[in-house]
């Protein structure tokens, strides 16, 4: 049996998972929502490093790993590629293209969190949109700043921080209203790519605001890379059913 292990954590991964039949496994880190309406099996939580992933691959007779994790989930991607080599199975990856700056953008690249803190020092109202990491730094917010932190987690704020638990996609008008309400004067972002969360960049451009862009991590080489879900789904179709062009469920 040809069995696929799909590593998720993105909307694109969910799109692929919706096409997978019951033979296949969709794996999530367990940080967000668990879809309850898929034909494939769904599991959540870490495997226990490369060793745990190898054990899982053996136990579940996995024949192909598809890495559709977030571009910043580099550890999971590294483990997937290493396990593929060790188990002599292919690892494919969906690698979403990064956003590119346009005329009028004022993007500044940041190497890490410390770099971001240094770069936002002159600003009063940063909007953080890179996940839960700033939640661990609420006690370090300088008196001159009020942070707005948008992430998936519900978390209490404090006198210097407003936490907004929200999941994209975000609209242009919604982002404009957020920037107005929070008096945003600088945006902190990952370069996630894709349409779901890019409206904030357009609003920053309209207003001439700087965007601190956290550098993308280096990702491992894999056997096949795809830049969009359709080409990956077509390749999966060919891998699973080399003699049929018309299967709807993979
Ligand atoms: P990571 O550093 O690559 O992964 C940490 C560990 O989480 C992995 O080693 C693995 O544990 C487990 N893991 C991650 N993805 C998994 C999956 N699909 N199935 C099973 N286990 C998985 O990634 P991260 O800590 O989750 O996130 C790193 C960055 O990516 C953060 O900035 C985060 O905001 C962003 N991000 C992640 C996700 C996500 O779903 N992971 C979604 C959106 C954004 P074991 O070593 O035990 O196997």
UniProtKB/TrEMBL annotation:
EC number: 1.3.1.-, 1.3.1.54
Pfam families, per database record: CbiJ
UniProt feature coiled coil, ranges: none
Keyword Oxidoreductase: yes
One MF term in the entry's GO annotations: precorrin-6A reductase activity
Superkingdom of source: Bacteria
GO biological process, one term: cobalamin biosynthetic process
Listed pathway(s): Cofactor biosynthesis; adenosylcobalamin biosynthesis
Keyword Oxidoreductase in record: yes
InterPro entries registered for this protein in UniProt: Precorrin-6x_reduct
Database matches in PANTHER family: COBALT-PRECORRIN-6A REDUCTASE
Descriptive protein name: Cobalt-precorrin-6X reductase
Lineage: Bacteria, Pseudomonadati, Pseudomonadota, Betaproteobacteria, Burkholderiales
